[in-house]
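Recall that a protein's primary structure is simply its ordered list of amino acids. Everything else, from secondary elements to tertiary packing, is in principle encoded there. The following example makes that idea concrete.
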Amino acid sequence: MGRIFGRYAIGSVVAAVVSELTLLTTYGLELLSPQGASVAAWALGAVVNYVLNRWWAWQLRGRPKALRELLPYWLTAVAGLLVSSWATGVADRMGQQIFTTDGPRVVFVGAVFLGVYGVLFIAKFVLFHYFVFAGTGTGSAPAPVDADADAGAGEDSAGEDEEARRRSRSQVPTTTRV
């Protein structure tokens, strides 16, 4: 679980950086309102986060299960969107009263946006690990690949796998081989 959490954390940081840069750019340059910038930041960050979590942290491949994986993930992401959008709107209103210049107000709104995702970080990991990405067919979370444990046995097990594959293939009649 430590390796998965580490990869989740790194993926979350990458997604947070993408989101934060999007928010600060679109809000700071006044391209979007605080809520609009929050939505744009959420959208880019959510896609990056999903891909990194599924493919890298939990190492899942193939077609995702709609009800078991996609729906809960995007419901979680939308909940984060609603909370962050609300919080950035409140921060913008507060920032206009507290700060006289745009720079500190933009930093304040950005900090609130980032803070919301920081609060949700652990809750999302637990949800993803035990529910969203746990649907690998076994009903439990996927076991992390332990490269250190496999390092010594890797050569032997690879040779054994190849031998078993050859043995198995040789037992199939030649007319049915592909």
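The chain has a mean pLDDT of 78. Helices lie at 2-28, 34-57, 66-98, 102-132, 147-170.
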